[in-house]
Amino acid sequence: MSAPTENTPARSTTVPHLVVTQDNEFFFTAAAQGRLEIQRCTSCETLRHPPAPACPQCRSFDWDTVTASGRCTLHSYTVIHHPQDPAFEYPLAVGLVDLPEGTRLVADIAGVDHAELRPGLELEIGFAEHAHGAVLPQLRKPAGGAA
Fold first, then answer.
1. How far is CA 7 from CA 11, 58, 102, 127, in A?
2. Ranges of residues in the chain whose predicted pLDDT is under 70
3. Sign of the four-CA dihedral 87, 136, 20, 1
4. Model-level pTM?
5. CA-to-CA distance for 121 and 132, rounded, in angstroms?
6. Which of 7, 44, 83, 113 is the most buried (most CB within 10 A)?
């Protein structure tokens, strides 16, 4: 989605713009490049998501990132019907997934029949453009369609 110009009006949405900070910029940059990066404390190697300035385990401010495999298992989900925003298609499934790296992620679920959703369902991380042109993780059936 391109930025609005004088000739193209802004997409009507109540979705706020992303708040990008020095602690989470790596996450959004990697997502735009099709990668899921997870913040890791370099002192104790604890993974953390969402990103934060200090490690919750050892309080270190030193960190790097690891690239997630893209595999995940559905831990929980909800199907949203209301309130509706023009930036999304409804009903909208949103899932909480367990990553094999040891942390969790919340994202929209696309391309999966809602009747198939159940805890333990194997999914994978993809990426899609969302409101305001941001690219964010999206949960999908694994390549090959096996779910």
1. 12, 52, 46, 28
2. 1-11, 145-147
3. negative
4. 0.86
5. 30
6. 44
The reported pLDDT for the residue numbered 120 is 98
Neighbours of 93 (CB within 10 A): 20
List the beta strands (DSSP E) in 1-147. Answer: 37-41, 47-48, 63-67, 71-80, 92-98, 104-109, 122-129, 135-140
**What contacts 118, CB < 8 A, 6 or more positions away?**
74
Please report the pLDDT score of residue 146 as a whole number: 52
Q: Alpha-carbon dihedral of residues 127, 133, 134, 138, nearest 10 degrees?
A: -30
Q: By the 8 A CB rule, do 15 and 87 touch?
A: yes
Which residue's entry shows tokens 């989605």?
Answer: 1
Q: Quick one: 27 exposed, middle or buried, by C-beta within 10 A (0-12, 13-18, 19+)?
A: buried
DSSP state of 66: E
46 neighbors 22 (Cβ within 8 angstroms): no
pLDDT of 144 = 73
User: For 59-80, what is each residue's pLDDT tens digit?
Assistant: 999 999 999 999 999 999 999 9
Note the pLDDT of residue 9: 40
